[in-house]
């Protein structure tokens, strides 16, 4: 964990704009409480890509993502892995003590997080209940997304799964100001997509090429362009889901 340098203030304020939008959308945090929470963020925990995010104590800790992407995953004894969800700025998650579970949160890019409890220790007393309530609602929404992911894996075909996931990510990123209606940055590899969707890398690559050939979407240079959003929504068979 590092003390924030005053020279990073402009960067931090922009990052917090996105992260607070996530707490507002996912958890219903009021703007007034968000403004006070912004002033309370004095330290961030930085994780490099590939790092497993463990609690620093013997009890679970709630983290709030300010920048970067992560995933919740389970790694099997033979090193295969299942990605259960993707986490973006504004999301919260529970970090568990090291070696306490076969599931964990792994940073997919460089990631900066605020520890919620330690951040609130230096915050005005009146906002603490509101922030914890927003955190609880956000964690509940994450659980709903996991159910949606199970439905995606069990009921949709390969192209449907892939398009459904990409549309979900676009909507979530748009709510925090990190996507346009028809394009967004995607710092995921085809291996990440395969591990999330229960497909082989070859199958993911083939499906992406098929969708590109139909002029429906393009995925390249770390970004996604949705060329025909309405048709993509039809392909995904979008069912009601939490964004």
TrEMBL record:
<dbReference type="GO" id="GO:0003677">
    <property type="term" value="F:DNA binding"/>
</dbReference>
<dbReference type="InterPro" id="IPR012318">
    <property type="entry name" value="HTH_CRP"/>
</dbReference>
<keyword id="KW-0805">Transcription regulation</keyword>
<dbReference type="GO" id="GO:0006355">
    <property type="term" value="P:regulation of DNA-templated transcription"/>
</dbReference>
<feature type="domain" description="HTH crp-type">
    <location>
        <begin position="156"/>
        <end position="230"/>
    </location>
</feature>
<keyword id="KW-0238">DNA-binding</keyword>
<dbReference type="InterPro" id="IPR036390">
    <property type="entry name" value="WH_DNA-bd_sf"/>
</dbReference>
<dbReference type="InterPro" id="IPR014710">
    <property type="entry name" value="RmlC-like_jellyroll"/>
</dbReference>
<keyword id="KW-0804">Transcription</keyword>
<protein>
    <submittedName>
        <fullName>Transcriptional regulator, CRP/FNR family</fullName>
    </submittedName>
</protein>
<dbReference type="Pfam" id="PF13545">
    <property type="entry name" value="HTH_Crp_2"/>
</dbReference>
<dbReference type="InterPro" id="IPR036388">
    <property type="entry name" value="WH-like_DNA-bd_sf"/>
</dbReference>
<dbReference type="InterPro" id="IPR018490">
    <property type="entry name" value="cNMP-bd_dom_sf"/>
</dbReference>
């Amino acid at each position: 964990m590092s003390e924030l340098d005053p020279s990073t203030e402009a960067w931090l304020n922009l990052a917090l704009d996105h992260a607070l939008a996530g707490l507002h959308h996912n958890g219903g945090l009021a703007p007034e409480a968000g403004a006070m929470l912004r002033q309370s963020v004095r330290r961030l925990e930085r994780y490099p890509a590939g790092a497993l995010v463990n609690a620093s104590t013997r009890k679970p800790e709630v983290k709030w993502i300010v920048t970067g992407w992560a995933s919740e995953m389970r790694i099997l004894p033979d090193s295969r892995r299942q990605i259960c969800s993707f986490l973006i700025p504004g999301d919260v998650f529970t970090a568990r003590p090291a070696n306490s579970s076969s599931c964990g949160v792994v940073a997919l890019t460089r990631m900066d997080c605020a520890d919620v409890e330690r951040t609130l220790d230096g915050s005005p007393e009146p906002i603490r209940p509101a922030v914890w309530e927003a955190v609880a609602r956000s964690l509940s929404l994450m659980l709903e997304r996991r159910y949606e992911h199970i439905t995606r894996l069990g009921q949709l075909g390969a192209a449907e799964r892939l398009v459904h996931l990409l549309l979900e990510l676009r909507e979530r990123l748009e709510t925090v100001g990190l996507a346009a209606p028809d394009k967004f940055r995607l710092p995921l590899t085809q291996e990440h997509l395969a591990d999330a969707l229960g497909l082989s890398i070859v199958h993911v690559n083939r499906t992406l090429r098929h969708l590109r050939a139909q002029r429906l979407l393009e995925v390249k240079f770390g970004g996604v362009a949705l060329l025909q959003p309405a048709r993509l929504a039809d392909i995904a068979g979008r069912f009601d889901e939490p964004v």
